[in-house]
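#structure-requests
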Amino acid sequence: MEELLRTNNAVTISFVEALLGEAGIIFFVADTNMSILDGSLGFLPRRILVHADEIDRARQLLVEAGLEYELKR
């Protein structure tokens, strides 16, 4: 799996989950339990990972949704 984006913005994560889910792209949100380490303050970013063969499609989907600034470079 490859990293699509990394953010600590819960709204962005939820939106991207919905976009990927509707498009049928399998993804994984990593580091969701890291909030235990930062006291549930949301300082540590979460990563959204997708399969390598779907990364280009997922990136294009985020660009079309206006989230190109969130993409991992």
